[in-house]
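FAQ

Q: What does a record look like?
A: Structure on top, sequence underneath. For example:
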């Protein structure tokens, strides 16, 4: 080590000596170049030294794949301002109090965590699970640094199920500014109204004024809190979520009808209905001639599916057309009336939701704000969810998710 000089990257530290211990760890003895510290009682600076306190050993960035530890004897200072002249240990800006790792090492660990699990990183970096976990905890700020935003423009509120069937959700709050830059502002630990509303209230007034739409799905707590904070006028229920809702009963009917046809039709006739899921989901104008023939055949065998598919396409068409809010309202009402008259009870649940959220759904037609960015996020989230989150405790889980999403922001 003697003829190799590597900067620590910490200005306020001076290297005294370097040694390698029997495990191959590099131990660098350092001392602080600072000559004063703040009194822990009155907060005023003091430069009156008063011996040393404990010796701290703090892990820093590895050198040539060897773990590095900084060893420092903490200088004690005495306060001349307070009557009882209390002693204070010097404070450092490169390590948080009681942390076993430097801030630089924490940042390094968090970079390793992008697309890796806590366990992976602990193994790769030869540190304990707790070291990685606490680096993560320290790095993910509980509060949003609002100073980094000058405007928000479009807010997105979206939920992610952490584990299927566990009713564990986190809420992603994102924004897309005027330039189109996407950023994940926060990951909230649950979708309770109180949580969401408290967060929205924490947005500084200066930034709240810059929000001209809030895109959300049809979750009561999201819609209600957004309406209460920003006003019903700007809250837009995402059309992507609306379409998901009316495609659901269609998908269900398709599945049961295909089952029925499989048992009913001769094998070669049923084989002609291959790939029906995609054909039913695709935009009609995107179908090839062969696919159109296949669809016609399905229609012939299942008039009910035809009726429902047509109704869903009509609805998509309403959302695709450039029209004002009032025209769209008339068309939606007409659509509802037609369905109710035809007795397609499969859409009952959807119509109930549509009626409940009509105002905010119709806001879409004002500026045609669709949160395509939330959809983009959804794809990213799907990828993240495919990775094994099982090894995490839930509280670190959403923090990690936050980091991953920030990674998304950086690499998108
Ligand atoms: Zn003092």
């Amino acid at each position: 080590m003697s003829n190799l000089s590597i900067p620590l990257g910490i200005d306020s530290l001076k290297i005294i000596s370097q040694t390698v211990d029997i495990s191959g760890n590099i131990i660098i003895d350092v001392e602080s170049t600072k000559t004063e510290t703040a009194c822990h009682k009155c907060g005023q600076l003091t430069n009156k030294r008063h011996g040393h306190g404990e010796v701290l050993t703090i892990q820093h960035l590895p050198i040539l794949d060897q773990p590095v530890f900084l060893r420092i004897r903490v200088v004690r200072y005495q306060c001349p301002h307070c009557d009882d002249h209390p002693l204070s240990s010097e404070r450092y800006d490169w390590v948080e109090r009681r942390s076993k790792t430097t801030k630089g090492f924490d940042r390094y660990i968090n970079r390793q965590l992008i697309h890796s699990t806590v366990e992976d990183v602990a193994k790769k970096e030869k540190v304990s699970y707790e070291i990685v976990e606490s680096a993560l905890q320290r790095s993910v700020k509980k509060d949003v640094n609002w100073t980094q935003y000058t405007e928000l423009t479009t807010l997105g509120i979206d939920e992610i199920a952490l584990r299927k069937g566990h009713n564990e959700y986190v809420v992603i709050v994102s924004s897309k500014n005027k330039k189109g830059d996407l950023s994940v502002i926060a990951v909230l630990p649950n979708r309770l109204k109180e949580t969401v509303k408290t967060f929205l209230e924490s947005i500084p007034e200066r930034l709240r004024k810059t929000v001209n739409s809030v895109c959300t799905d049809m979750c009561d707590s999201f819609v209600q809190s957004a309406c209460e904070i920003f006003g019903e006028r700007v809250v837009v229920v995402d059309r992507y979520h609306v379409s998901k809702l009316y495609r659901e009963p269609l998908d269900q009917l398709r599945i049961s009808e295909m089952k029925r046809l499989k048992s009913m039709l001769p094998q070669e006739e049923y084989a002609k209905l291959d790939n029906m899921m995609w054909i039913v989901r695709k935009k009609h104008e995107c179908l090839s001639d062969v696919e159109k023939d296949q669809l016609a055949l399905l229609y012939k065998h299942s008039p009910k599916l035809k009726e429902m598919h047509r109704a869903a396409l009509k609805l998509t068409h309403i959302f695709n057309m450039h029209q004002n809010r009032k025209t769209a309202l008339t068309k939606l009402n007409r659509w509802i009336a037609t369905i109710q008259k035809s007795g397609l009870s499969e859409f009952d649940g959807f119509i109930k939701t549509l009626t409940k959220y009509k105002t905010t759904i119709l806001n879409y037609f004002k500026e045609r704000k669709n949160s395509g960015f939330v959809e983009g996020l959804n794809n990213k989230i799907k990828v993240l969810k495919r990775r094994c989150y099982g090894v995490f405790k839930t509280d670190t889980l959403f923090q990690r998710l936050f980091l991953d999403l920030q990674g998304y922001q950086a690499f998108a």
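Q: Is there anything notable about this one?
A: Residues 39, 41-42, 44, 79, 81-82 surround zinc ion (CB under 6 Å).
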